[in-house]
Design a protein that fits this description.
Chain A: This is AMP-dependent synthetase/ligase domain-containing protein. The complex is a heterodimer of chains A (about 525) and B (about 80). By secondary structure, chain A is an alpha/beta fold. Chain A has 14 helices and 24 strands. In chain A, the strands form 7 sheets. In chain A, strands 15, 16, 17, 18 and 19 form a 5-stranded antiparallel sheet that branches. A 4-stranded mixed sheet of chain A has the order 2-1-10-9. The longest helix of chain A is centred in the first third of the chain and has 17 residues. The relative contact order of chain A is 0.09. Chain B has a single domain, classed as Orthogonal Bundle (Non-ribosomal Peptide Synthetase Peptidyl Carrier Protein, Chain A). Chain B has 4 helices and no strands. Chain B is globular and about 30 Å long. The chains are: A alpha/beta (about 525), B mainly alpha (about 80). Chains A and B meet through helix 9 and helix 14 of A and helix 3 of B.
Chain lengths: ~525, ~80
């Protein structure tokens, strides 16, 4: 069945249950279904047919969801794009995907066969008659392209077929057990797969999705209380915000589960968060767009194995490979390599030989070489060590910058730590820390926890932790902040202080466009 | 407290430079986390409660707007204290 059929169950069984709560109010499944049917009519009216690409660059609201479900229903391919990307970045995606329709800023969508502004498109959808059309689709047809940055080159589209997406949903559901009474807070952009899958998981069980916007963060706790949120997917900045808000307000909430994938909140922040939300648990997960989810730690095991991201999800297999391709044993660190039903179908229109991440296996299926480093314990639990591009060679040792950050973030009084990539590689290693513990004390405390090759040469304060648009600490921007502060402290260089405001903007062109 | 002192509070809590009090916090480079910290500091400092919706209004989401909000609150509350 196509992914869009997930809506059928709640539409027939729970039509009056709230499906979506956004800034404009609540939509029941019946109302969402109507909006999807109108969007189907609108897309078909635009001349769109199966297999064609629709680039969509809108915020977190009902319009996004209606056009997402409708695009899949007619067998077309949905290409979500974060609205904060520059026109230039969106233009690349529009051109690379050869979009038949771009719903985005007109200046960004010029190279699509047809371009409609996001708000204009939604008004037209609302004025279109409902259309019950459904394409007859094979599960191996493509549902989405999700653009993501590699270490080199321009963003590439990860080809996501219906089959793989459904496999990922089933596996995640088996591990996390979202249920029909769950209310899932999506404060992550729907244009990232971690955000979008919240909508899919919610539809799978007939639950409720709450779409929050960044501008509403100050009222986030009130939103959680008012809408009865039970599940909160986290990025580090969100964990910090909720800790801060709830630490002061102590509101009664129904939150039962926090999840996390990608950049992890610091251990101290996580401990505090679980404490201020009594009755809540934490599911630590690992994945990447190229195969959605890879592993999930059972929340019951978190206390005992807080550093693990859990065993592979049902159906997937993880191997740890040495640089020479040999398979490593338990507790040996190497590249994380994944095979199984959630491995996506490679990158859009890039020959397989040119894709260093996806490798064809003898049985014809693809294996994903993640470029991430980690190890497995005897029980098969995975431990994530770092990304290859976070790894430096220092004093003869391979050092993951994340290892240093992790050690610092375990210190009470350190809210966040960013290890700056040394330039040149054998140059001084700086660790920028944010929190109440003074830098010299951070360094003293680390001396007992890190070996010589991992010990930072200097620890510097960081007033603000720059984040990428998807809420991950931004190493490059942190480096610019530290450099700017150093320049500003030089007597004749006061004008450099203005650099701070420009680097605080949410992204530069070097940052990833998706998780 | 005057606007200039209030701007200093914003600068201290949010680690930014307030070049113009009317510039929205987001354009000054203040992220969500620091916005929350600022609201909490303001609530503490002035003994008031900031309605989260107030900051959704672009006119209020600047140091000047927030300071006007604080003053309006103080004016409203004044008779009750007498």
């Amino acid at each position: 069945m196509p992914v869009s059929d997930l809506l059928d169950h709640p539409l027939t069984e729970r039509a009056d249950h709230p499906a979506v709560i956004d800034a404009d109010g609540t939509l029941t499944y019946r109302q969402l279904g109507t909006a999807v049917d109108r969007a189907v009519g609108w897309l078909r009216g635009q001349g769109l047919t199966a297999g064609e690409r629709v680039v969509y660059s809108g915020g977190n609201d009902r319009s996004f969801l209606a056009l997402f479900w409708a695009t899949l229903r007619i067998g077309a391919i949905f290409v979500p794009v974060h609205p904060d990307l520059t026109d230039h970045q969106i233009d690349h995606i529009v051109a690379d995907s050869e979009a038949a329709l771009a719903v985005c800023r007109p200046a960004a969508g010029r190279r699509a066969a047809r371009t409609v502004d996001v708000e204009e498109a939604w008004q037209q959808v609302l004025a279109t008659a409902e259309d019950g059309f459904r394409a007859d689709l094979d599960e191996d047809e493509v549902a989405m392209l999700i653009y993501t940055s590699g270490t080199t080159g321009r963003p590439k589209g990860v080809v996501c077929p219906h089959r793989q997406m459904l496999a990922a949903l089933d596996a995640i559901h088996a591990c996390l057990g979202y249920d029909e009474d769950d209310v899932v807070l999506c404060r992550l952009p729907l244009s990232f797969d971690y955000g979008l899958y919240q909508a899919l998981m919610s539809a799978l069980v007939g639950g409720t999705l709450v779409l929050a916007r960044r501008s509403e963060d100050v009222g986030l706790l009130r939103l959680i209380e008012r809408t009865g949120v039970t599940v909160v997917p986290l990025v580090p900045s969100l964990a910090q915000m909720l800790t801060l808000l709830q630490g002061k307000l102590h509101r009664p909430t129904r939150v039962r589960l926090f999840t996390n994938t990608g950049a992890r909140p610091g251990r101290a922040v996580m401990a505090e968060l679980l404490e201020v939300f009594p009755g809540s648990e934490f599911a630590s997960m690992y994945g990447m767009t190229e195969c959605k989810r890879i592993s999930i730690l059972d929340p019951a095991e978190y206390a005992e194995h807080p550093d693990s991201v859990g065993p592979p999800i049902p159906g997937d297999r993880v191997r740890i490979l040495a640089a020479d391709g040999a398979e490593l044993g338990p507790r040996e660190t190497g590249e994380i390599v994944v095979s199984g039903p959630t491995v996506m179908a490679g990158y859009w229109r890039i020959p397989l030989e040119a894709q260093n991440r996806f490798v064809r296996r003898p049985d014809g299926s693809l294996e994903l070489h993640t470029g991430d480093r980690g190890w497995l314990d005897e029980a098969g639990r995975l431990y994530f060590v770092g990304r290859d591009d976070d790894v430096i060679k220092r004093r003869g040792m391979r050092v993951a910058l994340t290892e240093i950050e992790d050690a610092a973030e375990r210190l009470p009084g350190v809210t966040a730590a960013v290890a700056l990539r040394p330039e040149p590689e054998d140059g001084p290693l700086l660790l920028a820390v944010h929190g109440t513990l003074p830098p010299e004390q951070v360094r003293a405390a680390l001396a007992g926890r890190l070996d010589h090759s991992r010990m930072p040469d200097r620890v510097v304060p960081l007033d603000t932790v720059p984040l990428t648009a998807n809420g991950k600490p931004d190493r490059a921007a942190a480096k610019r902040l530290v450099d700017a502060a150093a320049a500003a402290s030089a007597p004749a260089a006061d004008h450099h202080r203005s650099t701070r405001t420009t680097t605080a903007s949410p992204r530069s062109s070097h940052e990833p466009v998706a998780v | 407290m005057n606007q200039s002192q209030f701007d200093q509070l914003v600068e201290r809590i949010c680690s930014v430079q307030v070049t113009d009090s009317e510039t929205p916090l987001v354009d000054l480079g203040v992220d969500s986390l620091h916005t929350i910290a600022l609201v909490m500091a303001v609530e503490e400092e002035f003994g008031i409660e900031v309605d989260p919706d107030a900051l959704a209004d672009p006119a209020l989401a600047s140091p000047a707007g927030l300071f006007r909000y604080v003053q309006a609150w103080a004016a409203d509350a004044a008779p009750a204290r007498v």
